[in-house]
Amino acid sequence: MTTKNQTEKKHPTHNIFYTTDKADSDKKNWNKTGVAWLNEETGSMNISLNLFGQKISLVVLKYQPRES
Predict the structure, then answer these.
(1) If you average pLDDT over residues 45-62, what whole number do you get?
(2) How far is residue 68's CA from residue 66's CA, in Å, rounded to a whole number?
(3) CB neighbours (10 Å) of residue 33?
(4) Would you kindly state where each structural domain of the chain is located, as residue ranges?
């Protein structure tokens, strides 16, 4: 059992792929390029990419319109 002060290892909830054309085929090659973790409490997503030799970390936040 864990408490709120303890951290537990969280496994990715999503895999991220990009596609490329296959030679002489209508199908695509699916190339895994990263993983993502969904934070259900905030609706945000942390993304970790390894794209073309570059490690990239992104955070996607839920859109919240500004009040005028």
Answers:
(1) 93
(2) 6
(3) 15
(4) 14-22+29-60
